[in-house]
Amino acid sequence: MDFAMWTMYDRPWNEALEDARWAEAHGYNAFWYADHLMPYTENGATDPGDAHECWSVLSAIGASVPRLRLVSMVSPVSIHHPVLLAKRAVTTDHISGGRAVLGIGAGWQVNEHSGYGFDLLEPGPRVKRFAEAIEIINRLLKGERVTFDGTYFQMKDAPLGPGPVNGTLPILVGTGSPLMLRLTARFAQEWNTWGDLDEVGVRTKRFLAACEKEGRDPKTLRRSAQAFVFYVRNAEERSKAEKDIVSGRTIIGSAAEIVDELGRYAELGVDEFAIGGHNFGESRAETRDGFERFHADILTQLL
Does domain 2-301 have CATH number 3.20.10.10? Predict the structure, then answer.
């Protein structure tokens, strides 16, 4: 199983670059960057905090760091027009020599939609808009000239040039819902989901069912997952970490326990697991120390 670094979008640019270079030097396969326009708030209020633009960062990383896959996690079609997303991804692909992965979703974060005036539709229409967008992106990346007359998007004889460096560019969908999973099986090359082992196990069954309904061989889709990972070395650290557990989305344990858990993700068919910096600490020093310890005590046994 491969590993990805998922760094925080509110950090200064130079820290993102340092993180990517460190990840490449320490055996990571990919660099993930969240596509949000402002920090999340639970009550939906706008937040004036920093949030760097995803594709600008990925392009710059692609020009500066020669090996890592570059993954948007995930670009919401509620904010980005599908043609612009395809253009951004292909441009990043060319800058990086063919390493871009276009992660897309239907959109969910309330405050960035309400604050900036983007429509966050009700769940049903939101999925229908996503269905139109992923079909358009899929066809453009295949080199088609797209004519489309949908409810949400219209275009006539639309080209995409240049095309992807390697003739193809993976579309990744982050989802766990049955209908979105069917769209993933129909149009995407990669599937991503959140969760601990139990949750990913449940979602994997849905994924396999969706592939069966769409006539898609599940082995033709790359799978990735992530969770809040708390590496604890003693009872005091465990007690502190347990206060921050998110049900269904958290791994907590010693080095040996986490090595075992990550191995079980691989057994579920997960090809890539992301290690996020969001639960290693608030400061730069805490985050870097967390990555260093996690690598030395855990990932060296798995890479």
Answer: no
